[in-house]
Amino acid sequence: MKRLIRSGEWREFRSGAGRAARTVADMFDRLITWFTPERRARIAFPLEIALGAWLALAILLNQQWWGGIALGLINGGVAVLLGLAVALHRARPAIALAALVAGGLGTVAGFLVGGYPDNGFVFLAAAIVLFGASAYGTSSARWTALGLSLFVAAIMLVTVIISAGTYYGVGLGYVVQHGIALLFWTVVPMLPWVLGELVRSIRNRRQLSATVATVSTQRDAALTRADLEAERTRVARDVHDIVAHSLTVVIAQADGARYATAGDSPAAADAFETIAQTARDALADVRVLLTELRHTQEAGPQPGLDDLDALLQSMRDSGLALEVREFGDRGHLTEARELALYRIVQESLTNALRHGDGAATLELEWGEQAVDLVVTNTAAAGHDGSDTRESTERGHGIDGMRERASLAGGELSVHEGPVFRVRARLPLEQRPDAPTDAQPETAGGEPAMPTGERAAAEVLA
Prior knowledge:
The protein is α+β, with helices and mostly antiparallel strands. The chain folds into four domains: about 1-30; about 35-135, no CATH class; about 140-295, no CATH class; about 300-425, Heat Shock Protein 90 (2-Layer Sandwich). It has helices at about 1-5, 10-35, 35-60, 70-85, 95-110, 120-135, 140-165, 170-185, 190-260, 265-295, 310-315, 335-355, 390-405, 450-460, and strands at about 320-325, 355-365, 370-380, 410-415, 420-425. The chain has a five-stranded mixed β-sheet with strand order 1-2-3-5-4, covered by helices on one side. α4 (about 70-85) runs parallel beside α6, α5 packs antiparallel against α6 (about 120-135) and α12 runs antiparallel to α13.
């Protein structure tokens, strides 16, 4: 031993023993994992059929054969019925109980024609069937098995009392002996049913534990998704406040510089125009990215302008008296802005249906630069916004509409009161045939600038 310790081989010996122990545990775990309930059911049923056949043969061979042909036929029928009952005690408990009752009646008939019910295998088969009905049967099968168990217990109680007889002057040992026999033969018929109830309780507890574990996992996943969504919303808001604002300032400064240098340096004006256009493209990409970041959606086609008419018709089918007024030709919107317009219309009409008087007006005005949306409805009686819960629910929808409009590069305002009105404006994409270089000229022959861009040019100056 000292040599092993000195040479370090003792540590190797202990680690090898640990690996062997872990290997045995792994083998046991793999066996438990392989022995799934489905595979166990496939293996158990053939074994139950074999057990039923064996008990049928044992009952048949252990029966009383003297007494005539009638007793022989009865004994054969009882053996077949009880064997069938044992084979089906788990798969079909109701059928097994019916076969057990029929076999019990056959045993009584055999007793009436001269037989004697002293076959122990009959009682073993009855115990297996009662256990199966209690552990695997329906509620009716369980109560039937309980009734049969109580009936057998009553018969055993009467039998023990009758067999004890009436004697005078017996000792204490005689009384204790027959008292124990009375208690034993009264409890024994109830044991299969009680064991079946115990097995059922253990199985239900395991299923409940599995359900609780599944629900806990789903709850944790939902909380994780909620935290992730909140973090995504915060990041989207911060990025919008920082990046989008900065890009807007860049666009304004570049346009102002372009107008300020258009007469003196055309090359510089072209450079500023490139800067402004690049910033606009980047701003559009940022807004689309923020829309996807803020509103988590599954991959697949999203609703847009082509689905707007179907949405309006579904609202009418839901009972909303909707009047639609649309002015101008529909312009071109990006997919993100089409989705934002669709969701704003959907939320506005849903609020009108839930909190309004059943009627609403939707106005869409398509301009050269933007599309204006106005949804108006009258608040229903008792829904004027005084209910804190309803105002909170509606406020979440309004916040969502504002975020969608803002991330799409537009704006949204809400007027609450007896008349509820939602106004939204979303910018349109520039049409391919729209002039981009034509600019009004000032008195000096230089192109004029919009007010905001003129202010930016003054800043540069």
